[in-house]
Amino acid sequence: MSETEKTSGRRDRVRERLQNRPRLRPTVYGYLTEEKESLRQGFAALFLSSVGELVAGIVLAGISGTLDELVGLAVLIPAAIGMRGAIFGAMGSRLSTSIQTGLFELSLRRGVLAENAQAAAVLSLVSGVFLAFLARFLCGVLGVPTELTVFDYVVISTVGGILAGLLLLGITVFVARLSVSRGWDMDNIAAPMLTAAGDILTLPALVLTTYLIGIPIFSNVLAVALILIATTAVGLGLRLGAANLKRILAESLPILALTGTVMTLVGLALEDRKEVFVTLPALFILLPAFLQEGGALGGILSSRLSSKVHLGLLAPRGIPEPRAFRDFTLTYIFAVGVYLFIGGASHWIAVALGQLSPEVLASLGLGTGQLSPGFLVMLGVSALAGLMATTAAVLAAYYGSTVSYRFGLDPDTYGIPIITAAVDLLGFMSLIIALNIFDLTG
């Protein structure tokens, strides 16, 4: 039997298993019972990622002093951390589909995993350089004050991205291997775990690389070398890479450029609104978790929809089929628990920070006044803004997957970057709207 026949047989068995699952009565209880394994895996991954995102929020609150010293650095932060989630979230989605279609092979020398690892490395390099030039350009055009040169941005963005990317690559491979060995559905766990890991790793990496800038000659030479390496890597990948690698790069570069542009605009908005977050550190703690959990929720939905489209279980229609609304419902169920959790947790973490000595708070760039607007207010802000962000994620996930598939593109490659851009921009706007409603922006 040929390899093609084996692959086709594995795909048919997966499709048959999903189609022939026992169907319960069309009630809420019946639906939740049928999806209990997805709920268990999804909530476990989302709450684990929420804890990680809150750690990232503490780090972000703790570097508020650095943000004040390096004016303009806040512009880069949402784009840099969001790009890690977009690159490796899309990689996780592609690997999940390859597992379900029987094409996955645990090898970094050949096959789907090797090609995705090579693509992630090249995209991490190129995106770092791209975001640096974009951030500096937009600061100049829009008149946003910054003390950083374009070479400073290149060093911070690219070196920080490489450091975080190497660790994320290892985590992605580990999650794929664990999914195969344990029989888990990687669609339910990849997006939240990888976005959380991206935030936790990228923020400290960016802060660490700020120590490389300002060194006479060295930082400029390093920036030029990084630009040349990134240009060479993408050129070689597109010309000499395997067919699947070329396709991933060709499809990823435009959508990641769009994603990076949108997220840099979020960074500009953050720089403009930075004062309210510095004044109430609970909001700084909430911010990474809020933005990335929206992306994680959309990532779960996008991965599930992409896999079903690939397997022929869902038609890529303009108006969603009734079965698509089952996945939408699952996403909103996840959202209720996650946004209430991160809202309440952000408050209590801020309260705990408030117990530190004035000297420690000063070293973190935090004041000694009120660090949170209150428990109920934080729940209300997170839940209200989360409802709006989840709706944006659902729409971006469905139409990102279906439209890309209808144009002959890989929905795994396009789904998560589209969601990352949409949820970061609309999610930040939703958060600002909620803050206005609760009168916290004055």
Element layout with pairings:
Blueprint: H1 3-19, H2 28-34, H3 36-62, H4 64-69, H5 73-100, H6 111-142, H7 150-182, H8 186-209, H9 218-240, H10 243-272, H11 274-279, H12 281-310, H13 322-353, H14 358-363, H15 375-406, H16 411-437
What do you see in this structure?
With 442 residues, the chain is mainly α. It has one domain. 81% of the residues lie in helices and 0% in strands. The chain is built from 16 helices and no strands. Helix 5 runs antiparallel to helix 8 and helix 7 packs antiparallel against helix 8. The N and C termini lie far apart (70 Å). The relative contact order is 0.15. About 1% of the residues have low confidence.
In short:
The protein contains 16 helices and no strands. The chain is mainly α and 442 residues long.
Number of strands: 0
Number of domains: 1
Low-confidence stretches: 22-26
Sheet with the most strands, sense and barrel status = none
The structure class reads: mainly alpha
**Approximately what portion of the residues adopt beta-strand conformation?**
under 5%
The outline comes out as: globular
Give helix % range. Answer: over 70%
- Kindly report the average pLDDT value: 78
Radius of gyration: 22 Å
Core attributes:
single chain; 442 residues; 16 helices; transmembrane; SLC41A1-3
